[in-house]
Amino acid sequence: MTSLKKMLRVDDPCDVFGVHGVCGIVGCILTGVFASSSLDGVGYVEGMTMGHQVWVQLFSVAVTIVWSAVVAFIGFKLANMIVGLRVPEEQECEGLDVNSHGENAYNQ
Fold this sequence. Notes:
Elements: H1 2-8, H2 16-34, H3 50-82, H4 89-94, H5 96-101
Helix pairs in contact: 2-3
């Protein structure tokens, strides 16, 4: 997995998107399916079908992704202009616990 992260140039040590993003998307879409009263859900409003509800859920996922991308881009640009996004590579290799916090995370 680490080599894939390096190949994709992904810096996500907690797999935040892999856990929260993907699972949130799948859960949102499946909400449109499992709301069906035939699957013991709450059912749909009159005139609503499972297909239409899934379409609404997909649309909401798309809007959320676009909104999050725009807001994150603006936030990262502002943070980069104000303080920068990365520490020097030397400090990163030594460990941020020592350089940024003045303590060791592990007893070595």
